[in-house]
Structure formats: structure tokens, C-alpha cells
Amino acid sequence: MENVYILQPVLSDDYAVLHEEAVALIESAGAAYAGTLYAKIREINPATFIGEGKLAELNELLRGLDVTVLFNGELSPSQTVNLSEGLEGKKVIDRTTLILDIFALRAESSEGKLQVELAQLRYLYPRLKGKGGALSRLGGGIGTRGPGETQLETDRRHIRSRIRALEEKLDRTEQRRDLLTKRRKKDGVRTIALVGYTNTGKSTLLNVLTGADVFVKDALFATLDPTSRRLEIDGMEFLLVDTVGFLQDLPHHLIDAFRSTLESALHCDLALVVCDASGASETQYRTTMQTLEDLGFSAPILLVMNKIDKLADGAGLPRDAVCISAKTGAGLDTLRKKIFEMLRDRFVEAELFFPYAQSAKYGALRPLISERAIEYADDGMRVRAVIPIEHAEKFRSYIVR
Ligand SMILES: Nc1nc2c(ncn2[C@@H]2O[C@H](COP(=O)(O)OP(=O)(O)OP(=O)(O)O)[C@@H](O)[C@H]2O)c(=O)[nH]1
Ligand SMILES: [Mg+2]
Fold first, then answer.
1. What is the DSSP letter of 244?
2. What does pTM read for this prediction?
3. How far apart are the C-alpha atoms of 401 and 399, rounded to whole Å?
4. Which has the closest alpha carbon to 89: 47, 152, 134, 54?
5. Are 138 and 77 in contact (CB under 8 A)?
6. CB neighbours of 211 closer than 8 A, spacing ≥ 6?
7. If you average pLDDT over residues 82-90, what whole number do you get?
């Protein structure tokens, strides 16, 4: 297992949270945390980010050790190379590279893999300029994941054309998905998206609500590919969509790479913003809302505070939130009720009557509604159903009540 030593710049008050996350990121990447050196930054050294004295101190500390150095921030290409040179050639990676590594590890769908590769190449591309021998040190993050080194040694033109090919391929996938989203809209299925900070329990919640078996792990970015499952509440059918988790300082081009997959989830009728009530839920909430805003999101949201089983009491939790434990099941009934209430004004409940002569007509309209009860009378079918508001017009002549 690879050992990773953290070089933590101290620039603002939130460095402790960022540091804690870096340790979790290292473990999520399957590597081992080997220690930390904090570097107070008064002025950023353009060549190496940290000061010369700090770099010398770090070099002394790590002399003879087989470690990779994680700079817990973003480095320019030349800073990466200069730091590596100041550390006797040790591999130096930054936070983005590490996150991309985890993404590469987790991507399962072919689209997810294409998106990760695209993000990796886009990150590397400007970093390859005229770097010659230093190039291999920039390539890849932990282990040999990511675009392999041989691939990186091919020239920039090759990478440029690979980027273009990936973009085109993803465009095509996106068009196909748009079509699916449209069809779903037409079918009147309401979509509910699970969004929020990584590791807050979104996938666990999807599993308990729908009986699915989605991968859950105490790790950052356990989910990469959006997964959707049927969710039934009170006879009404919804589609519940799980999404990639967010993280503060998640680099923008990373979000860009996942924009298309996220967008399909964000075209939802309701978003459940899941926070970990036992963690830094304010940061989680702020980051999530900021990211959603960046993505141009506008659907209604419902705040869900998860993991309340880890709290002694509910003091201090936001009053407008639904408090639950996906683990013990506490609060799930309230959550279902609340979801239903928020989406209810988008439906009408009605009693319909279709004479038997019109049963073919009913057969055609039936997929648009949620049937509650059906009764076969002498003269025709009496149906009690919930109809999405946008389809109500089509049923007008059949509505009895
Ligand atoms: N104690 C407790 N643990 C929970 C609860 N819900 C989820 N967990 C744990 O939290 C960890 C993360 O859960 P996931 O469901 O993978 O979280 P996620 O939000 O999907 O995470 P990403 O996919 O990484 O964004 C797992 O170890 C879960 O078992 C809960 O209500 N209580
Ligand atoms: Mg997940």
C-alpha cells in the first residue's frame, strides 16, 4: 500500500476540516496516511507555494522514506515539479489529482469512466506544456490509476484529440439521456433527487426507501454514477435518483465533467438535500447549496438531517429539516409523508368512468396515471386514480368526481 504524507497549507480557519477530509480521501483512495506537516502561509511562494525553509524542513522529515506527498490544495504544474525536485524526486500530487484518482477507482458505468478520463486529461493537458522529463512525475496520482504513464508520454496533440473524441462521445450519450428524461416527463413520473455532501448517507437512504442494493461505504465518493430506483409512497410512483456527493473545494472542472449526469438528476421535481447531523452539517449544507446554484438548479428542496442515531438529542438541528436515521429507520415515515405533501399539488385525485366501449382508450391513457382502485360495473369501469396535473385535461370527459 502506498503511504501518503500530507503537506497542509494553513491559509484560513477551515484548514482543520480540510485536513480531516484529506485523511479520509487518502483512505478512500486505498492508500495509507503517513503524517502531516502544517505550513503557515503568509505569502504564497510562486515557485513552490510554501516557503524555502518549510520545504527544507519537509525534505529533512521525509528523507529516506518511501512516501508520496499530498499537497492539500491546488498546485500549478511548475509548483508540482519544483516541490518534487525539492523533495529529492518524491512524487507530489495535489488535492484534485487525488480526487480524480478516487473517481477513477469508483467509475463503473461506461459513461462514468469516460467522464473521469476526460476530467483527468483536461487537468493534465495544460500541465504537460514543455515539461519534458518532469512529465512522468505529473502523470497519475496514487498507484498507477489514471491515464497510464505511457499514454501521457505521447504528445499533447494526441491528448488533445483524445479529449475531443471523449467530448463527442459524451455528447452523444447526453442526447440519448435527454430523450429518456423527456419521455419520463411525458409519462408523468415524478423524479426525486438525493443530493448532498459525500458520505452523508444518500445511498443508504435510497436503499432503505426503495429496497435497492446500492453500494454503501464509509468512504468519500462511494457513489459516482447516478442510480435510480422506483419509490412508491401511498400508491403514487416516483423515481428516486442517487447522485455523486459534493465536497468543499471540489474543483470546478470536476463538477463540469459530471454536469451532464448531474443535470439529469437535477431536472427533478424535488431534491432531498441530505446532511450528516453528526458531522459538519453547516459546511455540508453550504457547499451543497453553492454547488447546486453553480449547476443552475431551481427545483424545490427538502432538507434531510440524517444519522440522528449518533446524536444524544435533536437540539440545534434546523427546524425546517426532516430528521431521520437511514440506519435505524427513525423518521422515515415522516419523510415519506413530507415528500408526498410537497408533490401532492402536482396531482389530482379523481374518479373516472370508462364505458366498456372505451376500454381501448383507457388502456392507452392508463400508463399516465396511478390507479388506486378499479371496479367492473355492468356498464363500464369505475376507476379511482391519481393523475399528474399536466395530464388531467386528457381525462376531463371521463371524470365523474
Ligand atoms: N450511524 C449511521 N450511519 C449511517 C446512516 N446512514 C448512513 N450511514 C453510514 O454512513 C456511511 C456513508 O453512507 P453512504 O450511503 O455510502 O453515503 P453517501 O452519501 O451515498 O456517500 P457518497 O456516495 O460517498 O457521496 C456508511 O458507512 C453508512 O453505513 C445513519 O443514519 N446512521
Ligand atoms: Mg453514495
1. P
2. 0.79
3. 6
4. 134
5. yes
6. none
7. 94
Residue 381: give its domain's CATH number: 3.30.70
108-148: per-residue pLDDT in tens?
A: 888 888 888 888 888 888 776 544 444 444 555 555 445 55
Matching residue, cell 455540508: 284
Report CA(258)–ligand 2 centroid distance (Å): 15
Atom 17 of ligand 1: nearest residue by CA position = 201
* 353-362 residue pLDDT tens: 999 999 899 9
- From CA 260, how far away is CA 74, in angstroms rounded? 24
Which of 201, 30, 222 is closest to 107 using CA atoms? 222
Let me know whether 193 and 273 are in one domain.
yes
Cβ < 5 A residues, ion ligand 2: 202-203, 222-223
Amino acid letter, residue 74? E
CA-based Rg of the chain, rounded to a whole angstrom? 26
Residues 307 and 394 in one domain: no
Residue 67 CA to its chain's centroid (Å): 30
Number of domains in the chain: 3
Is the domain of 237 the same as that of 325? yes
- Residue to substitute in 203, 204, 240, 278 for testing ligand 1 pocket (most ligand atoms within 8 angstroms of CB): 204
Instruction: Go through 351-367 and write b for each residue having 16 or more CB atoms within 10 A of its CB, e for each that does not.
Output: ebbbeeeeeeebeebee
**Range 173-181 contact pairs with CB under 8 angstroms and sequence separation of 24 or more:** 173/111, 173/114, 173/260, 174/260, 177/260, 177/264, 178/264, 180/264, 181/264, 181/267
DSSP H helical segments within 63-155, as ranges?
77-86, 95-106, 110-124, 135-138, 149-153
Q: ∠ CA 362-365-370 to the nearest 5 degrees? A: 100
**Could you tell me if the CB of 284 is within 6 A of ligand 1?**
no
